[in-house]
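wait is this the right file?? whatever heres the structure
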């Protein structure tokens, strides 16, 4: 499988596969068995992804899925696009499923290395508080609409986010 060859982090950058582009009213997930992207959800009216959303290949988060990343980019890309990103922080959070099971479900935030508009965004402090609040609120609402409860704990810097990647890297 092609994704097995992609290192999660190299040359100081994350390798992120985009699942759902910014502005999309559809949620796509990568299906390892099918080796392709599957439409898994249609967003309610008035709801769309604020930025591209994807995952770091060959990682595993506490929720059992690859580590999630919200990618700040100039324009939306497409499902399956590989982009090198610099970490700027993480929204640490818990998520309660419909069955009551609660797990950590952190959301890393990164900026694509090819960005012109956001090239100066290097650390969490460069992400204005309004944008941090709106990103957190998007995930709260997104999960509420799916019958889940997403509880932000705090924002943390890129060093904390990198430790999550290192801890979640699959051992080959």
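ok assuming it is, sequence goes like this
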């Amino acid at each position: 499988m092609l994704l097995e060859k992609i290192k999660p982090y190299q040359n100081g950058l994350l390798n992120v596969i985009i699942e759902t582009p910014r502005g999309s009213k559809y949620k796509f997930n990568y299906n390892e068995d099918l080796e392709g992207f599957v439409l898994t959800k249609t967003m309610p009216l008035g709801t769309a992804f604020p930025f591209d959303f994807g995952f770091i290949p060959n990682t595993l988060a506490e929720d059992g899925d690859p580590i999630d990343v919200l990618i700040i980019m100039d324009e939306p890309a497409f499902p399956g696009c590989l982009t090198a990103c610099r970490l700027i922080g993480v929204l640490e959070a818990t998520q309660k499923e419909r069955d009551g099971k609660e797990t950590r479900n952190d959301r890393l935030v990164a900026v694509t290395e090819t960005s012109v508009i956001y090239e100066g965004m290097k650390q969490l402090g460069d992400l204005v508080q309004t944008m941090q609040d709106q990103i957190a609120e998007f995930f709260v609402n997104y999960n509420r609409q799916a019958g889940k409860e997403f509880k932000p704990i705090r924002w943390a810097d890129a060093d904390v986010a990198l430790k999550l990647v290192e801890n979640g890297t699959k051992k080959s």
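The chain has two helices and ten strands. so i think its the right one actually
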